[in-house]
Amino acid sequence: MTRPAMAPVIPALSLILMTACTQQPSAPRHITATSYNSGFPQAHDSYNAMGAAADGPIYYVLSSEQPDIAGRMYRFDPATQKIEPLADLTEVAGEKDKKAIAQGKSHVNFVEDAPAKTLYFATHIGYYSIIDGMEKMGVPPAGMQPYPGGHLLAFNTETRQFTDFGVAPEREGILTMNMDVQRKRIYGLTWPTGYFFRYDIPRQEWKNLGPVAGGGENGAGTNYQTICRSIAIDPRDGAAYFTDSTGAIHRYRYTTDALELVQRDNLRKDYFGQYDPHSAGHMGYNWRQTFWHPSTEAIYGVHGNSGYLFKFDPKAETVDVLTRLTSHPSQRAGMFDQFSYGYLGFALGPDGRTIHYLTGGPIYENGRRVKGKDSTAKGESKGRENLHLVTYDLARAEYRDHGPIFYENGDRPEYVNSIAVGKDGVVYTLARIAENGKLRADLVAIPAPRLR
Questions:
Q1: 193: CB partners within 8 A, 6+ apart
Q2: Distance (Å, rounded) from C-alpha 438 to C-alpha 420?
Q3: C or N: which end of the chain has fewer Cβ atoms within 10 Å?
Q4: 202: which residues sit within 8 A by CB, 6+ positions away?
C-alpha cells in the first residue's frame, strides 16, 4: 500500500498559517469535558449520528457492534441535563422479529426540517467480518438472517412518531446521507459498494443512480475505492456534491435527475499528500466532512489525514485551500491525523461564522512522541492521541487551538468522530468512556470555547 506523504508547504500559505496562529491567545493547559451515562453499556464507537435541534435538544445515536443488539437513539436536554431514550433502531425499522443482523448504528448526522418539527436520518450495519484486515459486511451467525439493508427514517420531535421510508438499494447499509429540505429530497451513499441514491419524499420514489466509486469498499485491486462520507447540498439549485478517492467531485443535478463530474477543479491537491486511490486504510483524495455556508454561498470541507480546510465554490467550480486545521502539536510534529480516515467532527457553529473541529494531537512521554502504526487497512486510530478542539473564524480567517480535552478523572476521550454544537456554544460529541473497568461509547459535553 502506498502511504501518504506530505508535499512541501508553499511559502504563501505557510505565512497565512503562521499569521493565523499568532492571532490566538495562549491556549489553556487543557479543557475539562463532562461525560454522561445513557444506560447502554454495549455502546460502541459512533460516527456522525448527532444533531442539535433548533429548539435546543441534542439528538444522538449510540452504536452496537453486536449482531443481535441494535443501535439506540436518545434525546439530551441541555437545560435539565436529562437523557431520554427514544428508540431501538431495529424496532423502528420494523425488523424486531426478523432474527436478522441488527440495525447497529446510524452513520449520518440528523437533518432537521425545523418548521415541520422533523429530523431525518438513516441506519447502517454495525456488525462486520474482518477479511484481509478490512471491514466487510458481517456474515450472519448461526440462526440469523443477513443484514436487511439500511433504512431512511424520520422522527417527529413533537409527536415522537417515527416514519420508515424504506430500504437502501441492494439492501446495503447507508453510509452517507444528506437532505435538500426545501425540495424534500434525500441523497445517500451505500456501503460497501457505494451506490448513490435519491429518495423523493412527496413522490415516495427511490432512484438508484448506480455505483460511483468503482467496486467501493467491497472491491479488490484497482476496483477498490474508499467511499465518500459527506454529501454537500447547494440549496440554491438543489445540486448535491460528493467526491471519490481519486479526487473527482461528483455533482447530482436536481434539474436533470442525473450525475455528472465537475470539470474545472478537483481535490487532487499536493498539500493533501500522495495516495493510491485503490488501496485501503485512508480516504484518498475524498473530502472527509463538509457543510454549506449560506453567507459565502460555498461549501467548506476538511480533507482527512492532512487536515487541510478548503472552500469549494460550486458555481465557479473552484477549490481554494485555506489553512491547516490540525492541532498545534500536530503541526509542530508535521504529522498526519492518527485516525486513518481523518475526523468527522467538523461543523459550523450557531453564529454562522465559526468552524468547530475535533481533531487529534500527539502524546509525549519522557520527551518523545508516542508513535502508532505506520499503516492500516481500515478506519481506525493508528495510535493513542489527545483530543483537541480547534475553531476557525471564517470572517477573520482566525485559527485557534483551544487545547487538549480530558475527562474529570484525567482520562482522554478517544475515537471521536462526531459533533453537535448547541445553541449556547457547548460542543457535544460521542467518545469512548472507561468506567469500573469497562469501556463504552457515550455522550460528552465540551464547554463552549471563547471565540472572540
A1: 170, 172, 211, 215, 216, 217, 218
A2: 26
A3: C
A4: 184
